[in-house]
Design goal:
It contains 23 helices and 13 strands. By secondary structure, the protein is of the alpha/beta class. The protein folds into three domains: 240 residues, P-loop containing nucleotide triphosphate hydrolases (Rossmann fold, 3-Layer(aba) Sandwich), CATH 3.40.50.300; 75 residues, no CATH class; 280 residues, no CATH class. A six-stranded mixed sheet has the order 7-8-9-5-10-11, with helices on both faces. Helix 17 runs antiparallel to helix 23.
């Protein structure tokens, strides 16, 4: 089969993909609700934070694409492709000022365009521990309205698996750091299929072929084209340098360079257009390569000549009849009405409970499949417990063991909290998926934070119980079953607090280095102000009132110290020289309450201190939620 035949049949690796045969669900179809997407005179300006100078990154960009068409936004790096795509999709622009007129059916939409569209990012994040089928299934459960039955959702999932050639990989995981999954090209197809599950009217793709070879790029884009044609969708994609075969899949091209338009129109008209303005395209040349070389001035030896050529191309476009026609608004199309949206349900109100349950299910699958989430931490904490149990092995209840007991409690409290930084990569991955899903209107920060909190509780309890079983009995802390369970409880609260701290810091700075640095710094402060290094009564008032009373480690340390010393006596040794003056001195014993006095502690309500610790944990989670809201 020749290349032309492969293009006509939708050839993909030796198989023919008949998407229309699988598109039985009519809710996929656009049904001409969105007949066109157009934009006029789009401009974007960014201001440098240091020099305070403004720089235009888009200037007077116009274009139009109708249902069933696929448009490629092309141009050299830095030309404004992704910025334009984000403007059209109404994605957050950050520090960029945007002036634009984006019309649906040539009229201002009464609905947010994000309710009509889906956006696939360049490095579209996926949950690596899920299988391909589970990824699409969770996308369906999160995006489709509650009226859809499980059978209807699964039918849609299976149709998309067939349409994108993923049926054989349906039960293969996406891939984690320790488990190999599907290929990069297949991941791109999964990303697109997951966005199509909610039947958007418009699909935005940011560099969907980045990192793929020419054959994989052709396969991905041919699947997208076939689905768009079969279901009358609008597809707008930024793409850098497609092969000839991939280029011929597009109906229209918008060529940008230096933030200005070089050409907008049918892909087949590229050669005659540039021939007509004095830049003939040689025969048997990839149009994408030709346009990129023509409009890229970054590597020009003669910068002045390159700039003059680019200005001439911009001028030729601005004076062309095609550019003038783009500013004319046809009146034969009807405006979009309220309710003409994709098959999603807003993530508020009654949806929070069902969405939280779905996210909890997804997180649960990830938690036990991906060893980096809790498996690695379980091994690390167990190793720490064995280390502590063997270093502080079988301490006798004597005066000489009082300081080692205290040191063991401090070491366990501080390092078990500090080791929670291992959770940073897993949460950052979850956060990246959350940002993508939130931008596509699937769920908000409330459901995400609640599900993230709940999924960790059983794992952290198992870690606390297993590690405590080694530490407590090997070290020879107070031999009492109730005391052991109190020890487990405080260690459990310590782990939950440490994970909540990671969530807070990672929500404020959702990158590995930033979150790791902040969490480590906070743990250092908590350790210094927990009442061991400096007794509470002697602690600097600033640190006492600013850090001690909000320090979950301080309450955990105090709880464990009271659990050991508050109800136990220690022998003074053979010479009966007691370092602590307690009521048991005449019996050659030391009452543990004397040790508590040294730290400035007294035995008070256990429930009160547990309640305060749980309150600190709740506040950290609420602050994490607020950070996610703030970063919108």
């Amino acid at each position: 089969m020749d290349y032309k035949g492969r293009l006509d049949s939708g050839w993909t690796g030796g198989k023919e993909t008949d998407v229309e045969r699988h598109a039985h669900d009519t809710s996929y179809l656009n049904n001409t609700v969105v007949e066109s997407l157009s934009w006029n005179d789009v401009s974007a300006t960014v201001r440098d934070r240091h020099t305070k100078k403004s720089r235009k990154i888009l200037s007077g960009i116009s274009g139009r694409v109708v249902a069933g068409e696929m448009m490629a936004i092309m141009g050299p790096s830095g030309g404004g492709k992704t910025t334009l795509l984000n403007v059209l999709a109404r994605r957050p622009a950050g520090a960029i000022e945007v002036l634009s007129t984006v019309l649906i059916n040539q009229a201002p939409s009464q609905s947010d365009i994000r309710k009509l569209s889906s956006y696939v990012e360049c490095d579209d994040p996926l949950v690596g521990a899920l299988t391909v089928k589970e990824t699409l299934d969770f996308a369906a459960r999160l995006s489709l309205s509650g009226s859809r039955t499980a059978a209807e959702r699964m039918r849609r999932v299976n149709e998309l698996l067939q349409a994108f050639g993923l049926s054989e990989q349906a039960n293969t995981i996406i891939g984690t750091l320790v488990r190999k999954g599907i290929s990069t090209g297949q991941k791109r197809r999964v990303s697109v299929a997951a966005q199509l599950i909610s039947a958007p009217k418009i699909l935005f793709l940011d560099e969907p072929t980045s990192g793929l070879d020419s054959e994989a790029s052709f396969n991905v884009m041919s699947f997208v084209r076939d689905v768009a044609k079969a279901n009358n969708l609008i597809v707008v994609t930024s793409i850098h340098q497609p092969s000839t075969m991939t280029f011929e899949l597009f109906d229209k091209v918008l060529l940008l360079s230096g933030g200005k338009t070089c050409y907008t129109g049918p892909a087949q008209a590229v050669k005659p257009y540039f021939d007509g303005i004095g830049y003939p395209m040689p025969n048997l040349t990839n149009p994408a390569d030709f346009m990129l070389r023509l409009t890229n001035t970054d590597f020009e030896r003669d910068a002045v000549a390159g700039r003059a050529r680019l200005d001439e191309i911009h001028g030729a476009w601005n004076s062309s009849d095609t550019a003038a026609n783009l500013s004319l608004i046809p009146t034969e199309l009807s405006p979009l009405k309220d309710g003409d949206e994709r098959a999603t349900t807003p993530y508020g109100g009654g949806r929070i409970l069902s969405t939280t349950i779905t996210l909890l299910h997804r997180s649960w699958l990830k938690s036990y499949r991906d060893v980096l989430v809790y498996g690695l931490r379980f091994g690390m904490y167990l190793g720490l417990a064995i280390l502590m149990g063997t270093v502080w092995l079988r301490l006798p209840p004597s005066q000489s063991s009082i300081q080692p007991y205290s040191n063991c409690i401090l070491f366990g409290t501080a390092f078990m909290s500090f080791m929670a930084v291992v959770y940073v990569p897993a949460f950052v991955e979850d956060h990246t998926v959350y940002v993508k899903d939130r931008a596509n209107g699937l769920y908000g920060s409330t459901a995400f934070i609640i599900s993230n909190f709940l999924v960790g509780l059983p794992y952290l309890f198992l870690i606390a119980l297993a590690s405590s079983s080694f530490i407590y009995w090997m070290v020879n802390f107070r031999p009492d079953g109730t005391a052991f369970m109190v020890w487990v409880m405080w260690n459990y609260l310590n782990l939950v607090g440490a994970e909540s701290l990671v969530v807070l810091m990672s929500s404020l700075f959702p990158n590995f280095v930033g979150a790791l640095a902040l969490t480590a710094m906070a743990n250092g402060i908590w350790m210094a102000c927990n009442g061991f290094m400096v007794p509470v009564t002697s602690l600097n008032p600033f640190y006492r009132y600013v850090f001690y009373y909000i320090n979950y480690q301080a309450y955990v340390f105090r709880g464990l110290v009271e659990n050991e010393f508050g109800y136990r006596a220690y022998s003074c040794g053979q010479d009966c020289f007691c370092q602590f003056n307690t009521p048991l001195r005449d019996q050659c014993m030391i009452a543990g309450t004397g040790v508590l006095e040294m730290y400035g502690f007294d035995i008070d309500s256990l429930a009160k201190r547990v309640g305060i610790t749980m309150g600190i944990i709740a506040v950290m989670r609420l602050m994490g939620w607020a950070a996610l809201q703030w970063r919108k």
